[in-house]
């Protein structure tokens, strides 16, 4: 009986060895490794939620004015300064201050508010010298002043003006538009031409094509 058991065991071992010999490359599959838990990287600047940018505060009147002044060229500021000198001279009825602004030349040309023409610096000075002693309490206001540079040595100034004064003791007021042509002469800005026109010209001197028809008032409802 014991011999039969040993014989059976030997047969089983022999069979197992033969099977292994027939499959030399077969191996027991390795267990699938469990992936290690990944660590979450800290958020960078680009990973952070986007925040809404704050709007810049609206420009105030002061900043708007400052920006406008910065946009004016130095030459335009210089021209405006000479224009203000002219206005101050008229307010003060100062012949010398006024004439310092004009081009001292026979070619100076002035178109006056009353439609007349004055030629040469000498004639303009003579007219001012005869007029100013008779005027008092001169007030000059300007608005819508515009300085337009035309190249490096030429500028045009336009404005609306109003002047009130006492002429020989009688108050008078006039309003109109003016155009002044400036030129850079000997490193200084001078007025070489002015053209002044009244805001309300004499209707009797207007051509028919320039006359305005009176507006018809709307009919009143019955």
CATH class of one domain: Alpha Beta
* Strand order in the largest sheet: 2-1-6-5-4-3
How many strand elements? 6
Structural class by sheet pairing and helices: alpha+beta
Q: What count of helical segments does DSSP give? A: 5
Spans where pLDDT lies below 50 across 5 or more residues:
1-29, 36-51
Reported CATH architecture of one domain: Roll
Strand content range:
25-35%
Order of helices and strands: HHHHEEHEEEE
Strand count, sense and barrel status of the largest sheet are:
6 strands, mixed
Radius of gyration, in angstroms, nearest whole number: 49 Å
Mean pLDDT equals 78
Alpha-carbon distance between the termini? Answer: 146 Å
The name CATH uses for the topology of one domain is Nuclear Transport Factor 2, Chain: A
Outline the fold blueprint.
Layout: H1 2-22, H2 61-71, H3 74-91, H4 95-99, E1 109-111, E2 117-119, H5 121-131, E3 135-149, E4 154-167, E5 170-185, E6 188-198
Parallel strand pairs: 1-6
Antiparallel strand pairs: 1-2, 3-4, 4-5, 5-6
Describe this structure in words.
- The chain is an alpha+beta fold.
- It has a domain at 72-201: Roll (Nuclear Transport Factor 2, Chain: A).
- Helices cover 30% and strands 28% of the residues.
- It has five helices and six strands.
- It has helices at 2-22, 61-71, 74-91, 95-99, 121-131; strands at 109-111, 117-119, 135-149, 154-167, 170-185, 188-198.
- Strands 2-1-6-5-4-3 form a six-stranded mixed β-sheet.
- A hairpin with a 5-residue loop joins strand 1 (109-111) and strand 2.
- The longest helix is centred in the N-terminal third of the chain and has 21 residues, at 2-22.
